Every structure is written in C-alpha cells, then in structure tokens.
Predict the structure of DEAD-box ATP-dependent RNA helicase RhpA.
Amino acid sequence: MSDTVATPSTATFDQFGLSADILKAIAEQGYTTPTPIQAQAIPVVLAGRDVMGAAQTGTGKTASFSLPIIQRLLPLASTSASPARHPVRALILTPTRELADQVAANVQAYAKHTALRSAVVFGGVDMNPQSAELRRGVEILIATPGRLLDHVQQKTANLGQVQILVLDEADRMLDMGFLPDLQRILNLLPKDRQTLLFSATFSGEIKKLAATYLRNPQTIEVARSNSTAANVTQIVYEVAEGDKTGAVVQLIRERNLKQVIVFCNSKIGASRLARQLERDGVVATAIHGDRSQSERMQALDAFKRGEIEALVATDVAARGLDIAELPAVINFDLPFNAEDYVHRIGRTGRAGASGDALSLFSANERKQLQDIEKLIKRPLDVERLVVDSPVRHHHDERGSARRGRDERDERGSRRRSGGGFERSSGGHAHRQAPIDDFFLKPYEPSPSALSAASARRDETENVPQKPASKQPLAALLGGFGMPRKTTSS
DNA sequence: AAAAAAC
C-alpha cells in the first residue's frame, strides 16, 4: 500500500463515490467543494485505512471522517426497530462536551437521509435520556470518555461491535489526562477495527498512542501544525495588569466588534470579567468548567445566535468549537500553554475571512509571550495601549468607567494604515473586515429525535450480506486481523 | 500556575 495520497484535482463531492443520500445531505448543508483535508481523508477512510490526521479546527475535519464513516456503515443500516439491529459500530471520542455535541449535530445532519442512527453522550447532564437512546440502538456514538465509561458500566453501552473508532483532538485528550480512560475504552473494542486519530500536533505521546493503537496509518496533514493562518492579524497590546478590563472594553468599542471571544486563563477570572463587561454595557457571558452544563450550552447558544457580544471563555472554548468566523478574538491573558494560543486565535480568520487576534500583555507575562513567539517562529508586534477609561473593580459605576462610552477618545492605540482603528473625520471609518458578511449559523443542540418514523416501518429484516457497494463488508469488518499490541511499558 | 472531564 502506498503511503502517498493523490489529491484529487476535481473539486466536488461527487468524486468520492458517496451515496446519493449523503450527497443530498451535503448539498443541504450548502457544501459544494471539499476542503483539503476532506479531499485527502475521505478516500483513505473509505478504503478502510487507519488515519493519523493533523488538522486545525475549521478545516472541515469533522466531515472528513463523518462522511466516509456514514458511507461505510450504510450497508449495515437497518430500518428495523430492534435494538439488536443497531449496535454501536462507530465511536467518536472528543475531549469536551461542547465538541461532542457539535460533532453529533454534524453527524446527524449528514446521516439524516439514511437509516443510520446516532447519539451523543457526555457528562453534566441527566443520564436517563442518553440511556434510553442507547437502548433503542445507535450505529454512531459520539461521546466524552468519562460518561461513556459510565454507560458501559451501567450496561447501556456495548462497544463489542465497534468497527471504526475516531479520536478527535487526541492531543487535547492526553493533555487532559484522559489516557487511562482511553486505554480502558480501547480495551473494550474489537482489536480488528479501523482507527482514525486526529490531533493538532504530533507530539511524542501522540506518536506513541498511534504506534500502540493504529495499524499502518496513513498520515494526512493539511495545515502545518503550530502554524497560524496568514489571514489573521496578530497584535499584542502592552497594558498594565489593572487596565486589562478597560482595555477589553476599549478594543470592543473602538474596533466596533459585534462579537468577540475573550479568553481568560482562569474560571474565576472569566466570570469576573464577564460581570465587569456587563457593568460597562457590553452584553457578555462566561463559559467555563465551573458553570453548569446547561449554562454552558445556553451561553454558547446565545452567542451563536448573536445575542451576546462578548463570550468570555477559558480554554474550554479554545479548541474545536465551530463558531462561524469571528472578526476578532481577544486574549485577556496570554495562555500558559503556547499551543493554546494557536488554538485560541484559530477562532478568528477562518474560511478565508480576515480576522484580528488581539492579545493583552502585562509585565508578568513575558515568559508566555516568549513561548508563543518561539512556537509560531516569529516575533509579534507589541504596541502600547493607553487605556483611557479604566474600569473600577469595586463599586464605581459612574465616573471613569462610564466616560469611556461617551467620549470614546482613542489616544494611544494606533495601527498601521488600513487597520480598524482610525476614525475618518466626523464619522465611522470602515473596518477592513466587512461586518455585513459576518453572520452566525444558528446553533443546533444535538437533536435527539432521530427519524423514528422510518425505523418503525420494516420489521422484516435485511441482514446485510453482500452489499452492492464498492466497499465489501469484509473490508468494512477489517480483513487482516493483525494482532494488536495492547499497551505495555 | 490553569484548564478540562464521571458520579
């Protein structure tokens, strides 16, 4: 088997041999042209090979594995209502709950004209609806590791028939200490299966994981990891620590940012900043791990609907979240982990649009800045930002905090010409990024209601024996039966 | 140092 992938030159989804039901769903999503990772990964996944994929979020990664998985499982799709006809055949693991929900929404959309069922399980919410769905049977299960193991223990999830495993954001899962959970899950799966591992970076740990659990994987790399998109303008503003809140307000006002994600390093800091922004007239809400799952979902939902100007987030939102491209992100703190910087600013300037990554930098963050510059292999422009409306942290609702809104004078922060800051005489300067083009796709939380109607119809079961498709069942089931090392060392 | 994730 060759290790090179020919990137197809034609630019439509027709070239992959996907079924009409899948193509229809793709068209309904408004997608016409495969992204680079889709063009590379779809044929490889369809061919049944293991994949080691490096791709940033926003590159179309989810579709690159979901579409071929659905295609491969189609011969096994059943309209029977019997749960036994709907064992879990594809398992997709993600590090965060929000990401799981989002992947599930995508899978649901792509599979909606097929008889395949999908479900998502993650923690922080009632187990019972999840259990009920699992008992009905689903072919494609999206999950965070902890809750999945919970379901396994409760015997509501059986992973004995999984043929395809996806580890999404694998590096993140390792960072978060999921390795023991992953190993436990992997030990529950048939050894003979297809495994797809996606990771932003190929660290030594990731390579070890791949060496242990993948079989002759095809490496697919689209954007060089640790690279930052060329269409993202990165600016670092030096500002006194105590002026950071005022700086955020000022940046939002001066740049006329309709929507922005503001990243903080701590959960408490995020909550506090959200409150202070609200006090200063910015519609803001916080999203972090100490908020309840329903609060997290509501916050994200409201932000996606455009009801919130500033989503103040910890790194729970740094990776994976598929929010339509934002005009800007702000780093309230520089992240301790330089890689998180790359992920955070990946929330802007996506899909070809331009974006600004604005980072606040105070004297005690020199180390973080150095690490970031080392990682992205270039120095960052540092400008001084004079904050003229410092936000009081106590009970000062009047006075200086309010002055910023009325006067909006912007000494200090000046950029190169063409930037978003300058004011033309007596009116609004035009921003470089056309704000009119910016809209948010409505967020759809995982629809749990599958096409139950069609599941009812046909009780006379057609057990798939010889699928007429290009993917023979034998290939789907694996084929080689190579013994797999279980982890040692 | 901090974040995330099962109860």
In short: Residues 95-97, 122-124, 127, 144-150, 153, 172-173, 175-178, 181, 265-267, 288-289, 314-316, 318, 335-337, 340 of chain A lie near DNA strand B (CB under 10 Å from a C1').
